[in-house]
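Render this sequence as a predicted structure.
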Amino acid sequence: MKVAITGATGFVGSRLVERLQEQGHQSLILTRNRTTALNAFPNLEIVAYTPTESGSWQQAIAGCDAVVNLAGEPIAESRWTPKHKQEILESRRVGTQKIVEAITLANPKPSVLVNTSAIGYYGTSETATFDETSPAGSDFLAEVCLAWEAEAQKVKEAGVRLVILRSGIVLGNGGALAKMIPPFKLFAGGPLGTGKQWFSWIHREDIVNLILFAITQPDVEGVFNATAPNPVRMSELCQAIGEILNRPSWLPVPSFVPEALLGEGAKVVLEGQQVLPKRTISKGFDYQYSTVKQALSEILASS
């Protein structure tokens, strides 16, 4: 296969490219930063693009068998100013719109678009349980996910199969976990905020496997939660980290700390949702890492 990928230099995308190479497939890297991509993937086909603009880059989609759209402005790395919120929304809404435009124009067309979304679609709750049939929430992240998914849906008008993966927090060497580990190593680890918020997660290998599953299984279509089947409370996650690293996990990080750093964006880590991957399991997807202890043991083995 030949697979076009946006967000290929990111945490999930870089591993996806590796796996595609291991399996003998071709990758076409669509990137905003050609130099970064060339350093990461010196032997692959790389096309520079501006995600929110039409252009000659769109012609590169023709002849690809699949498109995986992972691109989007980081959500929890800086304060949510009005400008940053607009960038978060537009990078996903318009970025997906331009990918769909490219697929629609392509001849021959890819057979499938795998488009990420996020479990932020459901809003936050300490008590509710969400699956793929649950309605959207009403906060900013839900609004982003609704707009993002609405643009992806338009690819079906071109007769292209669509798979939307609503991703939880991806655990692996790097990403969100890399920011949580250092305090534990300094004997100062503990849950963020109350610790009661739900943490719906997925191991990086499993989300990459799920993307490959979505590309290669013609009957996989529609929305799937890209989360492990066993979400945990933040306090349980931190306790598991402490046990595996043989460090205490009793020192909570007060809510005002992330709020001071991220403002409204702190809700990403201080509030959560219990999300179950019912459709994902019903399609026969097999998780390598179904419990957080199992996932963390593998990831932290070398720590």
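Summary. The first helix runs from residue 11 to 22. The longest strand covers residues 112-118.
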